[in-house]
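In this supplementary section we document a worked example of the pipeline. Step one takes a protein sequence of length 482 as its only input; no multiple sequence alignment statistics are reported here. Step two produces a three-dimensional model, which step three serialises into structure tokens for compact storage. The input and output of this example are shown verbatim.
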Amino acid sequence: MIEDNEIIENIENAESAEQQPLFDESKKYKNLPKIVIAGRPNVGKSTLFNRLLHERRAITDPTPGVTRDPIEEDCFICGYPIRIMDTGGFKLERETGTVEAMLDELVVEKTLASLKGADLILLLLEAGTITAEDEEFIALLRPYWSKVVAAVNKTEGGRKEEEAYNFYQYGFDELIFISAEHGDRIDELSEMLVKKLDFSKVEEGEEEEKIRIAIVGKPNTGKSTLANRLTHSEASIVSNYAGTTRDVVEGDFEYKGNKFHIIDTAGIRRKAKVHEDVEYYSVNRAIKSLDNADIVFHMIDAQEGLAEQDKKIVSLACERGLGVIFVLNKWDTQDQSRKTFRSAEQNMKIMFGQMSYAPVVALSALEGKGIKDLLNTALEVYGQLTHKMETGPLNTALKDWIAVYPPPASRSGQFKVRYIVQTSVKPVNFLLFCTRPEVVSQSYLTFLKNRIRSDLGYDKIPVQLELKASRKKWENYKKDRD
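The serialised model returned by step three reads:
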């Protein structure tokens, strides 16, 4: 016979086991089930996406149709790893023959394609009058009915709940009334989603090293076309309309055994031309994406050539110590002679001055020509970004450089160079120890940087050289370290 204290102990053990998380949120997982958030424009899909992520990833704005490209992110919901996707709105009413109508059509096609790969479709509706777009989209979801979860948004504090019940007429077994903006019943929705997903195929995965590429440039230079070509997908919507991409769209691919992560950004234009709030946030999001990149593919339209704004884009990458590759896109429209390319390359060297080290690659993203040259160059640049020099050989080289060009010997500006160490990779930074850092001229620093590039294998990337005061010689430093 089981004693009472044994029963209590068994219950406590069972409760403790139930409370143990199945997944460790500090780890990475693969084969995640996917939830696709779908619905008509302006019902709050991006707000709900951000709410479930616990961060502002998607751009939110009262303007209908802000989200165009599907955005995917991994997150934990109720302790379970899940991949969620925010999609563009299903827009029924559109003026035929307009640019916006064409984009709306592309958004709808992309949204419908996303539904096929979903493990669960989170249909977001809005409390209030049921629209024709709601009805048509619900009808399109019938083939996926078994994996649809319906939530009615904007019901904070019980607002419009009576009208929200009208959605039951379309055959939903269950509706949940939420407020994505205020967080009402989001925990309940989260539990509902987790219960309907299968996590049996989820496996623990190691953090993979990926070469992170940000594609930047002015609007309509072919960034999304290149991103789609590299990832062998149509993740980014492509059109001839400048400003099509608004959110940052990401994707992965492999080349020569190396894994790449591509970030397709909105076109960066002069602030004077940034009128809409949506575009303002898009441009800022594109600039912020540089913080998560190793290399920048700076797209330039070969037909239009360079503009002053290109300098500003590249300077942002240089400040972060990123590798930069100038990509002359639409090269298929130019004369294919070597002379034409050399002329274009020379124009870029002149315009960018201090960045003569940055490689230039001509290609046609639309036709796929020049892609291998671009990726081979990216691998070379990444190899330099991750190269770490041993301190001994580095200081041997420094002695040779000082012998060739000794520090200026004037009384007011005299200094002695002691030794140098490399402090980081990605970005590549060096620290030079000398007796009077404040009097070291910019021209002498430039000389040393150029020798680092030419002699140590960093000829295609930016290098940073900082100064620090020290009277200790390299030999004494080495002796103390040993």
